[in-house]
Amino acid sequence: MPSHSQSPSPTGSGQRRPASQQGMRRQNLAVVLGAVAAHAPLSRADVAARTGLTRAAVSTLVVTLHEAGLVSELGPAPSGRVGRPGNALVLSSEGPAGLGLEVGVEHLAACVVDLSGEVRVQRRVASANRGRPADEVLADLGGLAAELLAEAEALKLRPVGAVLAVPGLVDAAAGTVVHAANLGWRELRLPPELLGLPLSVENEANLGALAELWRTAGEAEGPAPVDFVHVSAEAGIGAALVVGGRLFRGARGFAGELGHVPVHPDGPLCPCGAHGCLEQYAGERAVLASAGLPEAAGDWVALLAKRAAEGSAPVRRALEQAGAALGTALAGAVNLVDPEAVVLGGAYAELGEWLLPAMRAELAARVTVRPWEPGALSASGLGRAGALLGAALVTVRRIIEDPSGAYGVG
Amino acid sequence: MPSHSQSPSPTGSGQRRPASQQGMRRQNLAVVLGAVAAHAPLSRADVAARTGLTRAAVSTLVVTLHEAGLVSELGPAPSGRVGRPGNALVLSSEGPAGLGLEVGVEHLAACVVDLSGEVRVQRRVASANRGRPADEVLADLGGLAAELLAEAEALKLRPVGAVLAVPGLVDAAAGTVVHAANLGWRELRLPPELLGLPLSVENEANLGALAELWRTAGEAEGPAPVDFVHVSAEAGIGAALVVGGRLFRGARGFAGELGHVPVHPDGPLCPCGAHGCLEQYAGERAVLASAGLPEAAGDWVALLAKRAAEGSAPVRRALEQAGAALGTALAGAVNLVDPEAVVLGGAYAELGEWLLPAMRAELAARVTVRPWEPGALSASGLGRAGALLGAALVTVRRIIEDPSGAYGVG
């Protein structure tokens, strides 16, 4: 089972490793690349000023990053300083990149992002995956990925890792889908590679949250929060917790099961075996039934949004009830983990207009011990594109955070 | 407001600091002291083997730690190795120490622990603090602390920091009690020093959880979990989340408000303004009312335990109902944060015999998506001693984790 934690001894920190010269170089490569990623374009002198490293050290480190194809030079940068302006360093728009993959109940998707997080190639195809043999699904996904890699190559991009988004419980460390009820996958071990790229698997709600965390300033209205609860729904209701800019996985990697938080403990029986889980009030089936609509095989979120926009009273009432249940469950979550924000993401972001008011009312009524701003709850601008984008960005972030690490490109 | 997180830039880690020689020495002092803390007695050669540092480096670092009074030598250690056995290093039982302080609704308490976490001096006095002016309470506490410091001096112990446990919402970074309803304290800024020692303030539930985390192997039946939810009750119901061996504070430092997680959203009105909060089912007043007992000014937990042990049916039924409500709220918490364990601590640990069965039943029924072992819920062996012990241990842990840091003793 995955775990972010090691067992420290009861009275000491004996597991900590001593610092070394190699460790210093590795850390300083990350410091320089991180500065370029955050503030490009930057001259070498700017990098030195921002990081506290000497110019000589920066120059040496930049040679390594340049040879690895991670940074490139724009030409002389404007400089307010006296003396020769340095060439401006930016993240390379060619070379190492990330491949994102997604298996949904009704679709397959893939995209390639470059080091700066820009989506350069993207494809989504309809595919009825519910109950289909996993090897067939993965073969189709491999075909889609091969097309994208060819397109990426034409752009001189070279994905060095692939991450697959799955709607279900995932053991990321073991590379296993523990249970994806809507696909019919259980204890499915994924191959360690796809088309020669190391392949990881991750829960789609987690990846949507990471995309929200990493969305570039240009896409966001303000600085992205680093401590938030991200709620999304596709086939089920999932949440992801981001803490201090990192995904919070829990002891076994299963954190974020908001869909099975009790809302009314004596409420209807949930397929999970418990009574009154959030999914019984805000899940796909519950909302469709409450709205008087038949269970839809297609895009039920789009259907609900359309009917609500047309003014359907039963649909609006069903969404309001779902919003209230979401708000009640989230109030408990906010009382417990004290995030700075709550983000409604995934497909449900498209229903924000009808869900958010009731969610806000419940949060305002139930998070009372310390202040809670209504604006701290918002709908994601990424919506259902978030999970795939997050999958592609994982590889890019790993490179930037430790260029000598995972993929050894530095 | 306190925050463990800094704002990383959207696409990089530019804030990371470069590694330096000074940083290496500081880190390696912590590595050596941590090894001694975890595995003492250890020879210098043992430390080198455990840490990967050279023997020469270890010897130099040990000189510094010895001069700071942090380690001492026992004399020759038994050694299976060929050659001269080295002197065994242990944490010093004299010198730097931690002072813990506690203000309860009905008592004041203080204790001093040495570097190995052993309580060397301890005192608890009755004191009716509800609604009493804070400066009077703190003056009495200062008097108690002065007595303990004199006793500690006789043992050649020198506390270098004091931490105060308070039943209420605390802004630890600002040194402020935001709201302690049962004491009548609101926005109370504590002095930065007490008797010349730097003074910190912390929520008692958090400190109880830290004591549980840091309890020494001798006191525990097995290795202490590093990812757990710690529920305690004194005047109100509080929880603390420990993640990866660290206290999880939330974005603003207010995580763990389990007492106001909704259990029955349409339930009775809580003084907080919301309906159906956990405190309305498992808080002091709710349990006493449900048991048909008058609100007690004294030790109501001891009273309930006594009556339950005597076989009182209304008391047992009231505790069973409280346990069910605790279990429902905790099931939501477990689904959300996926801890490896849940610990019932504080005064409620003494009611474990009557609370735990219903708590276990609710957890078993509601944490169903992935396995939950009934044994993962237990009552703390520290009980209501936990908060004070945790307060004293904070200082000791800070020294061991970074001897050159906070108190500069290394």
TrEMBL record, chains A, B:
SUPFAM superfamilies: Actin-like ATPase domain, Winged helix' DNA-binding domain. InterPro entries: ATPase_NBD (IPR043129), HTH_MarR-typ (IPR000835), ROK (IPR000600), WH-like_DNA-bd_sf (IPR036388), WH_DNA-bd_sf (IPR036390). Residues 1-24 are annotated as: Disordered. Residues 32-72 form the HTH marR-type domain. Coiled coil: none annotated. Belongs to the ROK (NagC/XylR) family. This is ROK family protein.
